[in-house]
UniProtKB/TrEMBL annotation:
Pfam families: PfkB. InterPro entries: Carboh/pur_kinase_PfkB_CS (IPR002173), PfkB_dom (IPR011611), Ribokinase-like (IPR029056). Residues 2-126 form the Carbohydrate kinase PfkB domain. PANTHER family: RIBOKINASE, SUGAR KINASE. This is Carbohydrate kinase PfkB domain-containing protein. Keywords: Kinase, Transferase. The keyword Acetylation does not apply. The keyword Transferase applies.
């Protein structure tokens, strides 16, 4: 899995098309590529199927963006773990065979974590209980 921000991609690839960059990365082995785009949400590419989706950011009042990316990644990792896509060789094989519909809950959790975090002052990510409300 690869996760980057659109700012990372712009800095590394000097205005190349985001989707083309992601597809290029996909040729090097990751099963999932996710690029966060701040207030515009995220773009995800499921490499084995070529499925790509733009997920809009949830509506929230932004108080502080500190910790947004870290919260997104924590939500993504915990969502993939809960879905059985991380933690073992079998899980890794499952991620490699996954389709977008299988990954949407983890991607949604990631966006939800980030949205909650930016609505608070400081790097203050949500708890699992806050996400399940």
């Amino acid at each position: 899995m690869v996760k980057a921000s659109d700012e990372d991609v712009e800095w590394l690839y000097d205005n190349q098309d985001l989707r083309e960059v992601m597809q290029g990365w996909g040729q090097h082995g990751p099963s999932l590529i996710v690029v966060t785009r701040g207030h515009r949400g995220s773009t995800s590419l499921v490499v084995n199927t070529g499925e790509i989706v733009d997920l809009p950011a949830g509506k929230t009042v932004v108080v502080d963006t500190v910790g947004a990316g870290d919260s997104f990644m924590a939500g993504l990792i915990s969502g993939l773990l809960d879905a059985g896509f991380l933690g073992s060789t079998k899980a890794r094989e499952g991620l490699r065979a996954a389709h977008l519909v299988d990954l949407l809950p983890a991607l949604s959790r990631a966006g939800g974590c980030s949205a909650i975090t930016v609505a608070r002052a400081g790097a203050n990510p949500p708890t699992r209980a806050e996400l399940e409300v």
